[in-house]
Amino acid sequence: MLKKRIVLLLLVVGLLLIIAACGSANETNEPAPEAGEEEASQGGEGETEAAGNGEQMILRYGELNPDDHPITEGAYEFSRLVEEATDGRIKIEIFSASALGSEREQLQSVQAGGLDFFRPNSSALTDFGAEPMGVLALPFIFENREHQWNALNGPAGEEILQSVEEFIGGMKGLTYYDDGARHMFTQGSAVESVEDMSGLKIRVPENAIFMDMISAFNADPTPINYAELYSALQTGIVDGAENTIAGYLTNSFYEVAENFSLTSHVASPGVVVVSEMTWNKLSAEDQAIIEEAAQQSSEFVRTQTEKFEEEALAELEELGATIIQFDDLSSWQAEVSGLYDTYGGDFADLIETIRATE
Fold it and tell me: Are the CB atoms for 233 and 241 separated by under 8 Å?
């Protein structure tokens, strides 16, 4: 009886093994679907192509200023326009207030492909090799804001913007952002004339033309990371700095440097740059969308900056800042005239084109 049960059990196990082997053979020998067959069965050729181009892309944009600065608001507008034009397929995340490092660090990151977009000052790009950009940082090169933007939107501005891609490599210039004119601000003694600059330690961005300009004003140029400027003023490491009206207000520098002198010594714009690695990954259609959004956001920033500055000076006075105005800046201009030979000697034609712009 026991022998019969053992035999029966062996027969059952053998039968199960045979069934399993057949199933495995069917799985192995079944022909694989051709590429695209599964997608085509879900909705047709058109939807297959759309799905192939529909992968979401998240890009990063670095900015030095806080969120309430007009130039940072322009970054958010740029992001919004791109996302809207691509139906959310391309998203651009904004990292403001130097969250991704100093100006130089973020430029290096863009060049290496680690950061997709950044907005440096044009003078910073000069030190990276785009020497024509130095023309925009020459003191008092623009008569006023209208003259500046007529020049930037004309042949001279286009030639200078192209120098980013031509001379630096690893990045491409997309558009200019209106950063407003730059002015001096100090703690303690107010700067009411160029003679008052003598001996002052003035924070500058880490680039040559700004350092030479402050030296020409007989002050001591002191490069400090922008994110560290407030504490440097607070602790007396520097006596003052220079920046735009928006930068002075939104970073609360008036709390530690109460004297704001409207010198308008430089009106160099910001420049939105994109990493070459990022750019080459985009389709021609997406590149066109990015360029159009950049141009539209540039116009947005200009409007925002002009409006902001009109209201900011009155607000600064209410906050306790002393505003010093000048009827004549010719003595300031005379001190820095030599910088045109140092930084503009090779670009005499470009400078003449800017000056001839109406």
Answer: yes
Helix (H, G, I), strand (E, B), or coil: what is residue 274?
strand
Sequence length of the chain is 358
User: Bridge-partner residues for 58, per DSSP?
Assistant: 91
What are 207's two structure tokens? 């680039």
Q: Above 60 in pLDDT, residue 166?
A: yes
- Measured between its terminal Cα atoms, the distance across the chain in Å is 114
SS3 helix, strand, coil % of the chain, rounded to 5? Answer: 55, 15, 30
Q: Average per-residue pLDDT in the chain?
A: 87
Query: Which candidate, 175, 176, 332, 307, places its Cα nearest to that of 246?
Result: 307
Q: Which domains does the chain have, with CATH numbers?
A: 56-178+269-308 (3.40.190.170), 182-267+314-356 (3.40.190.170)
- Angle formed by the axes of helices 155-163 and 145-152, nearest 10°: 70
Q: 240 — phi, psi (to 5°)?
A: -175, -170
Q: How confident is the model at residue 53 (pLDDT cuts 50, 70, 90)?
A: low
Supply the pLDDT for residue 83: 98
What is the distance between the alpha carbons of residues 14 and 1, in angstroms, rounded to a whole number? 20
Joined together, the tokens standing for residue 101 give 């490092």
| Residue-level pLDDT at 206 | 84
Is residue 318 helix, strand or coil?
Answer: helix
Do residues 181 and 267 lie in contact, with contact meaning Cβ atoms separated by under 8 Å? yes
Q: What is the pTM of this model?
A: 0.79
DSSP state, 112? H
**CB neighbour burial string for 164-191, b if at least 16 within 10 angstroms, e if fewer:** bbeebebbbbbbbbbbbbbbbbbbeebb
Exposed, middle or buried: residue 104 (CB in 10 Å: 0-12, 13-18, 19+)?
middle
